[in-house]
Task: inverse folding
């Protein structure tokens, strides 16, 4: 660890955060599955797309490859790797948006949380999926921020009253 740069430590912390996000997504989908009843298709679709999102972020190393070896790498190759990482992340918004929209739909259908949480998630999900069309602008920031507001609100709700 003494030879690790701050970037290596930050990358490792991000990976642990992604593992925690994956556990949250899976746990939430299982909770929604119990509330949804048979057939639990909304929560299943949400689980599949949440897993796709997590799998992409945990396996994609384009951004790290762009910065690897610093000045030794060809600038064109570094730009290519950086662009691949950004395009891949923009594509991952579709998976995250589908996860969000179907979780929100399941919340609205089951009434497991307050309706505003369901609508917030549906709006965030649709916004994230549509942001793929304008990925070079900052339009993705609003639905992405709404997603994290929703995650925090659900976590607080589950901690305050887990039943």
Result:
């Amino acid at each position: 660890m003494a030879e690790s740069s701050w970037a290596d430590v930050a990358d490792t912390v991000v990976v642990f955060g992604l593992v925690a996000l994956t556990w949250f997504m899976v746990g939430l989908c299982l909770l929604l599955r119990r509330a949804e009843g048979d057939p639990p298709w909304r929560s299943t679709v949400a689980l599949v797309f949440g897993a796709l999102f997590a799998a992409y972020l945990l396996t994609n190393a384009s951004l790290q490859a762009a910065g690897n070896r610093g000045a030794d790498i060809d600038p064109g190759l570094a730009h290519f790797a950086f662009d691949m990482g950004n395009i891949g992340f923009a594509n991952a918004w579709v998976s995250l948006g589908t996860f969000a929209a179907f979780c929100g739909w399941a919340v609205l259908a089951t009434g497991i949380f307050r309706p505003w949480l369901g609508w917030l998630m549906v709006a965030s999900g649709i916004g994230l999926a549509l942001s793929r069309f304008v990925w070079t602008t900052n339009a993705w920031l609003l639905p992405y921020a709404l997603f994290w507001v929703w995650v925090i609100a659900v976590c607080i709700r589950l901690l305050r009253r887990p039943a």
Observations:
- The chain has one domain: 6-160.
- The helical segments are 6-36, 41-59, 62-67, 75-110, 115-131, 141-160.
- Residues 6-160 form one domain.
- The mean pLDDT is 86.
